[in-house]
Amino acid sequence: MSFVSGLNLDKYSSSFYAFLIELFEFNVYFRFGEKRVKSELQELKEKHSKLTKTKSDGWSMFEQTIIGGFLHEYDHHRNKIILVQLNTTFENYVMDFSFRLLQNYPEMLDECQVKMSEVRTKSIEDVIDTKIEEFIRNQVMANSFKKIFENINKKFKISADLDSEIFNKLDEFREIRNLIVHRNCIVDRKFMDKYTNVRYKLGKKLLIKNEYLQDIEHLIVKTISSFDQELIKKHSFLIPKEIILGLPKDLDDKFLEMFES
Asked: Which residues, other chains included, contact 152 with Cβ-Cβ below 8 Å and sequence gap of 6+?
C-alpha cells in the first residue's frame, strides 16, 4: 500500500491538492523524459564497455573519455534537477496556503504601507494581493523552513507539531539545494559551519544519491500532510468545496512507483 492510499483526500486544503498534483506531474513528466533517453544511454553504455575492452571501433580516446564521463555524471545531474524541483514544490505549497490565509486575514499585514500611486492604476484588491505576495516571498526567502512554520503556527494560532529533527533535515535539504544552484554542488565553508556530517568534505562536490532523494521526498509529503490537517482544523475555509478535478485516479499506484523507483 502506498503512503497516499492512507490519506483521506477529502480532508485537506486546496494547497495540499495543488502540492500533490505538482509533485505527481513533475515525476511523471521527468520519468517520461528519462524513458526517451534510456535506450540511447544503454547503447552508449554498451559501446563504452566495448571500447574499454577492445580500444577499437575507430573511437578516439577523447570520445571514449567524454562518453565515460557523461555516463558517470548522468545520475548526479538527474538527481540535482529532482532535488531543486522538490524544494520548489515544497515552497510553492507554503506560499499558496499562506497567500490564501492572508487574503482572508489582510489585517495581519497592517505594517505594510500602500501608496496612493499604487491604487491609481490598480484596484485595491490587486494592490493587497501584490503586497501579500511580496510579504510571503520575503518570508520564505529570508527564513529557514523551521522558522517559517514556527511563524505560521504563532501568527495563525495553529497547533502543528514541528519536530526539530525533521525540520533540521528539511533545512539541510534546502541548503543542499542552494549548493546546487549557487555553488555547482561544491561544499563551502558556510555549509560546513552548519552541517558537520562526515560525508561532507570542504571544497568537494556533493553527490546526490537516489536513496537520499527517496527519503527526503517521503519526509516532505508526510510533513506537509500532517501540518495541513492541523491547518484546516483552525481554518476550514481552506478545504475545497469539491475535490480538484484532474487529480489522477491512479494516484496511489503512480506515487508507489515514484517512491520505489
From this structure: 98, 158
- Dmax over CA atoms of the chain, in Å, equals 76
What is the value of pTM for the model shown?
Answer: 0.75
C-alpha cell at 50: 566495448
CB 98 within 8 A of CB 152: yes
Cell 506531474 -> residue: 25
Question: Mean pLDDT by 10-residue block, N- to C-terminus, for the chain (261 residues)?
Answer: 50 83 71 57 60 50 54 72 91 93 84 67 79 87 92 91 92 93 88 79 86 90 92 89 50 46 42
How much is the CA Rg of the chain, to the nearest whole Å? 23
Cell numbers for 209, please give them: 544519491
- What is the C-alpha to C-alpha distance for residues 162 and 145, in angstroms, rounded to an integer? 10
205: helix, coil or strand? strand
pLDDT of residue 166: 93
Residue 158 cell numbers, joined: 495553529
**Distance in angstroms (rounded) separating the CA atoms of residues 239 and 15:** 9
**CA-angle at 230, arms to 228 and 232, nearest 5°:** 70
| pLDDT value, residue 150 | 93
CB contact at 8 A, 43 and 102: no
Asked whether 169 and 219 are in contact (CB, 8 A), the reply is: yes
Of 261, 260, 258, nearest to 25 by C-alpha is: 258
CA 17 vs CA 51, 174, 225: distances in Å: 49, 22, 10
H or E, element range at 189: helix 189-194
